[in-house]
Write a structure and sequence with these properties.
Distance between the termini: 30 Å
GO molecular function: GTP binding
InterPro entries: GTP-bd, P-loop_NTPase, TRAFAC_YlqF/YawG_RiboMat
Protein name: GNL3L protein
Number of helices: 3
Strand order of the largest sheet: 5-7-6
Pfam families: MMR_HSR1
Largest sheet: 3 strands, mixed
Domain G: 63-117
Mean pLDDT: 87
Order of helices and strands: EHEHEEEHEE
Helix content: 10-25%
Structural class: alpha/beta
Oligomer: single chain
Radius of gyration: 15 Å
């Protein structure tokens, strides 16, 4: 079956308390917006998550786990959707040491997780 795919760029702002989200979709965003510090693609991703919180006519609460290799931006993605620094981030792997739940809104909770390392220890494209 098909799974939804969303183009998304996390916020890279360092100083700001309230992280910016660009309202432009990634496909229409000019280069300077894509290269800037604001998050791009949040609206579409939030819409996908909101759709999962609907089961027919009934709205339910969902918990979404964010998983992946170390230092790929899991915490940055969550911070960008939350628009605040809910999770610690850093340039070196291993900042996130345990599961952390972040309430995005009334119906959606995100789980930040430590990086997953495969048995070989290296991501497939790092070889």
């Amino acid at each position: 079956g098909e799974l939804p795919t969303v183009a998304f760029k996390a916020c890279t702002q360092q100083q700001s308390r309230k992280l910016k989200q660009s309202r432009l979709p990634p496909t229409a965003a000019p280069q300077e917006v894509l290269e800037g510090g604001a998050c791009v693609g949040a609206e579409c991703l939030l819409r996908v998550l909101a759709n999962y919180s609907r089961c027919g006519e009934v709205k339910t609460t969902i918990t979404v786990g964010v998983v992946g290799y170390p230092n790929v931006g899991k915490s940055s993605l969550i911070n960008s959707l939350k628009r605040s620094r809910a999770c610690g981030v850093g340039a070196t792997p291993g900042v996130t040491k345990c599961l952390q739940a972040v309430q995005l809104d009334r119906r959606i909770r995100l789980l930040d997780s430590p990086g997953v390392v495969m048995a070989t220890g290296t991501p497939p494209d790092a070889a």
